[in-house]
């Protein structure tokens, strides 16, 4: 049967739901920070030679751990978050371990005696919803980025080479499972991909689907007591497929970039990746504004503008330009006053009074009706 | 496990069942006199006991690895604990409860029953459900849910509908229903589904290991069908129990 096509609205919605995804790497191999909107997760992979589990003598050991500290949100007190912690940890374990994304047999050094134990530690740095997605991306990216020391076995001797002697070896990863969360509202009427923190608080329930780019579903988990219908689940899996493709591409690109930068000897690491010049940074340059000829311009406009209904209006209007003070409103409560925006004026007036035909326009265009409120001087 | 055929050419599984067949289910309600409701279920070799206390006053009893739950003003609190006996698996387990897997099971059971029980009818009270697995031979979650449903019914707590659960897997292009331990350990995809049979709504859906998206519908369908079969059986058990009880009362 033909598969139901994805509507354009859905497609666009999905793409916009992933607002800002960023992956940055640290100086060491296996360390990365993933940003999904404002949620940030730090992932670090480390390895160690240990003796294997008794019933699995030829396989390496994978260990995942997600930490929620108070740094992420003040609600994460040390004793209180065990339910959420258990849920998240188990989901991550099932998604990454049971789907066999890493070849554990390749982690074996000497069967029955020495195997690699790979430990993935994830720390939530900032909680703005959807921890699972960010954590799963961080885990898989860190694992892809990690390089373990090279080992050679000659008879009974095992030689472990330091990174200086031989280049470290990457882990063998079969596929990249990535979790996608869906939040349900109003008994399944509304569905949101990648909910943020506010949305999570009001949702009825959550459905997490982990897929890889070959469209194989690695894990499905529904939580929160929502009642699902079968076709809802199938629809979600299709949406998840689309999203996972994009995220996988993003990961590949980020890994390639990092690889290139390291090879060319450029600077890499967290310090380089945190941008200073973003529009969301709190620092802004001072913009000098020339207010020397504001008075004449103001006089011109006033003389050409329509006579106002109240005399107070004129007084306060002049006040704005001459004293650069906040708006002084008259005392009558009820009437609506027409007030020009003080901060926008200097530049606007200058450009618009040049053209003679547009005399009336500035007074009308930049005028804004506003309900009166008590002035705070 | 190389060489062990999960599905033979003639369509028979390791224990001789067909692909969509369930294991033999035997259930008994009202097993304990002390508890408000109790039930015992055997699904093949998997044996589970469920005990329900409630609704009673919400006490501030500290759950294992849980937070202190306060009474909710508009509905009842459902508290579930899962414990599997140390002799339930092939190798002796160290910790019967308190480890991560048991906590997760407890949370999932709670989520399932919070959705099914009409909690609005009992505000400011608490309903405790304790499930104990005596022998785990695959499909433990399903057996727990089925046992807990019977126990809740035995306690007389109103529910929206039966909650019936079943596991399903996928081997060689065919969906298998009600997996046994051998089939689970083989490492193929496993799906656990808890269903409210009358409306077809899914209370809990959980899946592990890789399954291609195209096969998802098939496996979901097999699990849903198996859950409905379980419902028929449980319904019969409940009616039988009620009939026996009314005979004893002399109606």
From TrEMBL, chain A:
<dbReference type="Pfam" id="PF03725">
    <property type="entry name" value="RNase_PH_C"/>
</dbReference>
<keyword id="KW-0694">RNA-binding</keyword>
<dbReference type="InterPro" id="IPR020568">
    <property type="entry name" value="Ribosomal_Su5_D2-typ_SF"/>
</dbReference>
<protein>
    <recommendedName>
        <fullName>Exosome complex component RRP45</fullName>
    </recommendedName>
</protein>
<dbReference type="InterPro" id="IPR033100">
    <property type="entry name" value="Rrp45"/>
</dbReference>
<feature type="domain" description="Exoribonuclease phosphorolytic">
    <location>
        <begin position="175"/>
        <end position="240"/>
    </location>
</feature>
<dbReference type="GO" id="GO:0000177">
    <property type="term" value="C:cytoplasmic exosome (RNase complex)"/>
</dbReference>
<dbReference type="InterPro" id="IPR050590">
    <property type="entry name" value="Exosome_comp_Rrp42_subfam"/>
</dbReference>
<dbReference type="GO" id="GO:0034476">
    <property type="term" value="P:U5 snRNA 3'-end processing"/>
</dbReference>
<comment type="similarity">
    <text>Belongs to the RNase PH family.</text>
</comment>
<dbReference type="GO" id="GO:0000467">
    <property type="term" value="P:exonucleolytic trimming to generate mature 3'-end of 5.8S rRNA from tricistronic rRNA transcript (SSU-rRNA, 5.8S rRNA, LSU-rRNA)"/>
</dbReference>
<dbReference type="GO" id="GO:0016075">
    <property type="term" value="P:rRNA catabolic process"/>
</dbReference>
<dbReference type="GO" id="GO:0071035">
    <property type="term" value="P:nuclear polyadenylation-dependent rRNA catabolic process"/>
</dbReference>
<dbReference type="InterPro" id="IPR015847">
    <property type="entry name" value="ExoRNase_PH_dom2"/>
</dbReference>
<dbReference type="Pfam" id="PF01138">
    <property type="entry name" value="RNase_PH"/>
</dbReference>
<feature type="region of interest" description="Disordered">
    <location>
        <begin position="353"/>
        <end position="377"/>
    </location>
</feature>
<keyword id="KW-0271">Exosome</keyword>
<dbReference type="GO" id="GO:0035925">
    <property type="term" value="F:mRNA 3'-UTR AU-rich region binding"/>
</dbReference>
<dbReference type="InterPro" id="IPR001247">
    <property type="entry name" value="ExoRNase_PH_dom1"/>
</dbReference>
<dbReference type="InterPro" id="IPR036345">
    <property type="entry name" value="ExoRNase_PH_dom2_sf"/>
</dbReference>
<dbReference type="GO" id="GO:0071038">
    <property type="term" value="P:TRAMP-dependent tRNA surveillance pathway"/>
</dbReference>
<keyword id="KW-0539">Nucleus</keyword>
Automatic annotation (TrEMBL), chain B:
<dbReference type="GO" id="GO:0006364">
    <property type="term" value="P:rRNA processing"/>
</dbReference>
<keyword id="KW-0698">rRNA processing</keyword>
<protein>
    <recommendedName>
        <fullName>Exosome complex component RRP41</fullName>
    </recommendedName>
</protein>
<dbReference type="GO" id="GO:0034475">
    <property type="term" value="P:U4 snRNA 3'-end processing"/>
</dbReference>
<dbReference type="GO" id="GO:0071051">
    <property type="term" value="P:poly(A)-dependent snoRNA 3'-end processing"/>
</dbReference>
<keyword id="KW-0271">Exosome</keyword>
<dbReference type="InterPro" id="IPR020568">
    <property type="entry name" value="Ribosomal_Su5_D2-typ_SF"/>
</dbReference>
<comment type="subunit">
    <text>Component of the RNA exosome core complex (Exo-9), composed of EXOSC1, EXOSC2, EXOSC3, EXOSC4, EXOSC5, EXOSC6, EXOSC7, EXOSC8 and EXOSC9; within the complex interacts with EXOSC2, EXOSC7 and EXOSC9. The catalytically inactive RNA exosome core complex (Exo-9) associates with the catalytic subunit EXOSC10/RRP6. Exo-9 may associate with DIS3 to form the nucleolar exosome complex, or DIS3L to form the cytoplasmic exosome complex.</text>
</comment>
<comment type="similarity">
    <text>Belongs to the RNase PH family.</text>
</comment>
<feature type="domain" description="Exoribonuclease phosphorolytic">
    <location>
        <begin position="161"/>
        <end position="225"/>
    </location>
</feature>
<keyword id="KW-0007">Acetylation</keyword>
<dbReference type="GO" id="GO:0000177">
    <property type="term" value="C:cytoplasmic exosome (RNase complex)"/>
</dbReference>
<dbReference type="InterPro" id="IPR015847">
    <property type="entry name" value="ExoRNase_PH_dom2"/>
</dbReference>
<dbReference type="GO" id="GO:0071028">
    <property type="term" value="P:nuclear mRNA surveillance"/>
</dbReference>
<dbReference type="GO" id="GO:0003723">
    <property type="term" value="F:RNA binding"/>
</dbReference>
<feature type="domain" description="Exoribonuclease phosphorolytic">
    <location>
        <begin position="21"/>
        <end position="158"/>
    </location>
</feature>
<dbReference type="GO" id="GO:0005730">
    <property type="term" value="C:nucleolus"/>
</dbReference>
<dbReference type="GO" id="GO:0016075">
    <property type="term" value="P:rRNA catabolic process"/>
</dbReference>
<dbReference type="Pfam" id="PF01138">
    <property type="entry name" value="RNase_PH"/>
</dbReference>
<dbReference type="InterPro" id="IPR027408">
    <property type="entry name" value="PNPase/RNase_PH_dom_sf"/>
</dbReference>
<dbReference type="GO" id="GO:0000176">
    <property type="term" value="C:nuclear exosome (RNase complex)"/>
</dbReference>
<dbReference type="Pfam" id="PF03725">
    <property type="entry name" value="RNase_PH_C"/>
</dbReference>
């Amino acid at each position: 049967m033909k598969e139901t096509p994805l509507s354009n609205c859905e497609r666009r919605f999905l793409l916009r739901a992933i607002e800002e995804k960023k992956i940055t790497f640290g100086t060491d191999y296996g360390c990365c920070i993933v940003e999904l909107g404002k949620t940030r997760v730090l992932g670090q992979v480390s390895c160690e030679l240990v003796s294997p589990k008794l019933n699995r003598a030829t396989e390496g050991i994978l260990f995942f751990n997600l930490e929620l500290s108070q740094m992420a949100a003040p609600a994460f007190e040390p004793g209180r978050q065990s339910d959420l912690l258990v849920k998240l940890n188990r989901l991550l374990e099932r998604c990454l371990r049971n789907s066999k994304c890493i070849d554990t047999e390749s982690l074996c050094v000497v069967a029955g005696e020495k195997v690699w134990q790979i430990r993935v530690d994830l720390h939530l740095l900032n909680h703005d919803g959807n921890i699972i997605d960010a954590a799963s991306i961080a885990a898989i990216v860190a694992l892809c980025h990690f390089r373990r020391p090279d080992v050679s076995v000659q008879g009974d001797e095992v030689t472990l080479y330091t990174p200086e002697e031989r280049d470290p070896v990457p882990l063998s990863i079969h596929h990249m499972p990535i979790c996608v969360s869906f939040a349900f509202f109003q008994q399944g009427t509304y569905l949101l991909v990648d909910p943020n923190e506010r949305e999570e608080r009001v949702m009825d329930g959550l459905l997490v689907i982990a897929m890889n780019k070959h469209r194989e579903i690695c894990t499905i988990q529904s939580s929160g007591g929502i009642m699902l219908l079968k076709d809802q689940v199938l629809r979600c899996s299709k949406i998840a497929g689309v999203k996972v493709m994009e995220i996988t591409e993003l990961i590949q690109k980020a890994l390639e970039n990092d690889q290139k930068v390291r090879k060319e000897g450029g600077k890499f690491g967290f310090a380089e990746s945190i941008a200073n010049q973003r529009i969301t940074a709190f620092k802004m340059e001072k913009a000098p504004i020339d207010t020397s000829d504001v008075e004449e311009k103001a006089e011109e406009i006033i003389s050409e503008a329509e006579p106002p209904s109240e005399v107070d209006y004129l007084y306060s209007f002049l006040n704005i330009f001459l004293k650069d003070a906040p708006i002084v409103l008259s005392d009558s409560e009820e009437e609506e006053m027409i007030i020009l925006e003080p901060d926008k004026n200097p530049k606007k007036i200058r450009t618009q009074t040049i053209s003679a035909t547009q005399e009336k326009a500035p007074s009308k265009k930049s005028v804004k009706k506003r309900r009166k409120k008590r002035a705070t001087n | 496990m190389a060489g062990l055929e999960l599905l033979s050419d003639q369509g028979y599984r390791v224990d001789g069942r067909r692909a969509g067949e369930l294991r033999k289910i035997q259930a008994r309600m009202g097993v304990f006199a002390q508890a408000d409701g109790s039930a015992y279920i055997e699904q093949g070799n998997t044996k589970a006991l469920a005990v329900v206390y409630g609704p009673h006053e919400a006490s501030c009893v500290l759950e294992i690895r849980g937070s202190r739950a306060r009474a909710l003003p508009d509905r009842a609190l459902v508290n579930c604990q899962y414990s599997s006996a140390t002799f339930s698996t092939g190798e002796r387990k160290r910790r019967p409860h308190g480890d991560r897997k048991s906590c997760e099971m407890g949370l999932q059971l709670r989520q399932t029953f919070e959705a099914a029980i009409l909690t609005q009818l009992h505000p400011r009270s608490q309903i405790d459900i304790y499930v104990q697995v005596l022998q785990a031979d695959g499909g433990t979650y399903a057996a727990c849910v089925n046992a807990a449903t019977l126990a809740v019914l035995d306690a007389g707590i109103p529910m929206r509908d039966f909650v019936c659960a079943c596991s399903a897997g996928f081997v060689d292009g065919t969906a298998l229903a009600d997996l046994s331990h051998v089939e689970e350990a083989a490492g193929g995809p496993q799906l656990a589904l808890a269903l409210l049979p009358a409306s077809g709504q899914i209370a809990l859906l959980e899946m592990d290991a890789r399954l291609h998206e195209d096969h998802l519908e098939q496996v979901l369908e097999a699990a849903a069908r198996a859950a409905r079969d379980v419902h028929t059986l449980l319904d019969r058990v409940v009616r039988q129990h009620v009939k026996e009880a009314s005979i004893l009362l002399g109606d």
